């Protein structure tokens, strides 16, 4: 990209959308999701090492733009992500994202990556990690309500991390369901297109809700959820946006990523601010109970947290040298004398 | 950079360090700084339109990594910036930065730019805007204490926005002073290398302090500041880092960018949390008095605020088409069907 040759200190490896797709397709999508799930689980296990803060959100009528930073003391990471429910109808992605890793010791960025694709992968991987610890043993059937951009990634993640063999698809728009069914035709999963949400949840061990309206919606009513099911609620992820009827929450044991963020953004924004919730990392680390009985309804009230993006970026960084699918970006000024930025600028003229 | 051709929706204009230097050198450094000063002043005038929040800082022993977001309702911007005082001795920049602008309506990024160089420009431009409104009329002589990476930019900004004609340089490291003097030799400024801070401030109408130690330092003691001077204090910019003796603050009228951030990071962290300060934007907008008398000591306790980066990015965005100095980055996934991210990924394989 450059005619001159900035030093290696000035260069930041950049993973474009095209290179992200190459990385995923080189390694294979199921393996990438399973690997990212391992990275996410490993980082949940060392949860207490991370600086954690609720994301910094800029809300507008049309949607939200968020920054999600975290750090483990050695590496700092953040994601930029938007959520604009009306985008789809206008030909834009509902969610686009990119992320950065940097070295804490000197503050230099070491990775810039697209994260529209990567967020889809990490969201599915996180759901699967939670279900691995919370869903009934030998869960085989998952209902998928909402068949948008995230749907197939969820299906593949649950197939490869939780070993489900059947997905029951439903969306208010039948063309979305047909799209998902077509994409999953060769996945090895049994794919059933359902005509209602009630139909979709029939016989399901796991119910995933993943719809995008920015409103208080009721995708699941209380009568649709039976004892023993695991609910993976990922569509309610900002203030004013929920998917489940409040009564379901009152019957469920509720597991969350980071309570200060989930209280604002998750399904539990419908509940009292002191309603008991269990932090997922504690279940993974053996510090709290997950599923205790066959009758229990477990609910993963997922909103997405910065450590999951950190884990995904960490995984991609580890694949750079393996796959070679990245470009170097001349993003950092690197004068010969760090104090001589002005001189560097003047010398560039001649 | 790509073999395939992603749609224009997927592309984000990127200004590398090399292209930033080309933009600056094409237009000329003095004009760029003066233009950015105009953009900063224009945005201070519409201060109330901006979403404002203190920056989100991740502190470590070695330094700090910060995200600085803001929005005017139409455009969202943020800067990533680190501050690592020990970097210089290790051959790294103390400050590196990059920034992004995005469209609020759909959340899509529309500019990614290096900001190591641009931050130097906007910091100098901001100082000059403040001095234009606060320094004694007909100020001609500026003392510059601290001759690191920011020094020459300050000198050029004050020459072109405030019309000073003389800089009096001092640094504890004489090689830094010599570097600055060399760089400014052809600027048209009278450049005087001083052997002490006391020497440097002699006869100065404006005193700029710009040192980088992360500690409570006393670059200026009370006896060094005379009545009528304007102090431009830009080195004290994070918690635990100050440059001025507290007694100077007590004799000065103190002007700040955004009080909630300056209370934590600025010189006024040495004062009571309710010590009176005046917001710079109010002076610029004619809603508060600036300099009221010839005897008054005015202090701009500058820490750098997100709107200034926003203004600078807005300026650079406006130069893209004029100069053509940018690359298109394949940063956003743009499937034909926004709901079919999975299909896009699968089709990329074949």
Characteristics:
homodimer, about 350 residues, alpha/beta, 8-stranded parallel sheet, 7-stranded mixed sheet, 11 helices, 17 strands, globular
**How many DSSP E strands of chain A?**
17
- Arrangement of strands in the largest sheet of chain A: 9-8-7-10-12-16-14-15
Shape of chain A: globular
* Assembly type: homodimer
Strand coverage percent of chain A: 15-25%
List the total number of helices of chain A: 11
Order of helices and strands of chain A: EHHEEEEEHEHEHEHEEEEHEHEHEHEH
Mean pLDDT of chain A: 93
The N- to C-terminal Cα distance of chain A equals 20 Å
* Helix-strand category of chain A: alpha/beta
State the helicity of chain A in percent bands. 25-40%
Can you describe this structure?
The structure is a homodimer of 350-residue chains. With 350 residues, the first copy, chain A, is α/β, with parallel strands linked by helices. Chain A contains eleven helices and 17 strands. An eight-stranded parallel β-sheet of chain A has the order 9-8-7-10-12-16-14-15. In chain A, strands 2-3-4-5-6-1-17 form a seven-stranded mixed β-sheet. In chain A, α2 (29-45) packs across α10 (306-323). Chain A is globular and about 75 Å long. The mean pLDDT of chain A is 93.
């Amino acid at each position: 990209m450059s005619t001159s040759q900035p030093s290696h200190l000035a260069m930041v490896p950049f993973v474009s959308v095209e290179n992200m797709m190459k990385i995923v397709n080189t390694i294979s999508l199921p393996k990438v999701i399973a690997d990212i799930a391992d990275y996410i689980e490993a980082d949940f296990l060392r949860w207490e090492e991370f600086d954690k803060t609720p994301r910094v959100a800029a809300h507008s009528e049309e949607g939200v733009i968020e920054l999600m930073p975290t750090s483990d003391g050695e590496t700092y990471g953040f994601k930029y992500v938007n959520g604009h429910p009306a985008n789809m109808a206008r030909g834009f992605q509902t969610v686009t994202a990119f992320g950065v890793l940097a070295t804490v010791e000197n503050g230099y960025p070491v990775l810039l990556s697209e994260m529209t694709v990567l967020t889809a992968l990490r969201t599915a991987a996180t759901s699967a990690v939670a279900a691995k610890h919370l869903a009934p043993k030998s869960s085989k059937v998952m209902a998928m309500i909402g068949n948008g951009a995230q749907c197939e990634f969820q299906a593949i993640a649950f197939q490869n991390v939780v070993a489900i063999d059947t997905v029951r698809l439903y969306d208010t728009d039948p063309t979305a369901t047909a799209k998902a069914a077509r994409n999953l035709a060769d996945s090895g999963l049994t794919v059933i297109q359902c005509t209602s949400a009630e139909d979709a949840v029939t016989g399901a061990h796991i119910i995933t809700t993943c719809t995008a309206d920015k409103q208080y919606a009721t995708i699941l009513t209380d009568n649709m959820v039976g004892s023993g099911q695991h609910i993976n609620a990922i569509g309610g992820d900002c203030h004013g946006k929920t998917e489940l009827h409040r009564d379901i929450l009152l019957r469920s044991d509720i597991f969350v990523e980071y309570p200060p963020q989930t209280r604002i953004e998750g399904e539990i924004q419908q509940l009292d601010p002191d309603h008991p919730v269990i932090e997922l990392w504690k279940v993974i680390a053996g510090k709290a109970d997950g599923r205790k009985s066959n009758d229990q309804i477990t609910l993963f009230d997922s909103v997405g947290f910065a450590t999951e993006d950190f884990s995904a970026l960490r995984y991609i960084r580890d694949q750079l040298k393996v796959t070679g699918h990245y470009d170097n970006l001349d993003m950092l000024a690197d004068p010969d004398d760090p104090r001589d930025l002005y001189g560097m600028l003047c010398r560039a003229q001649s």
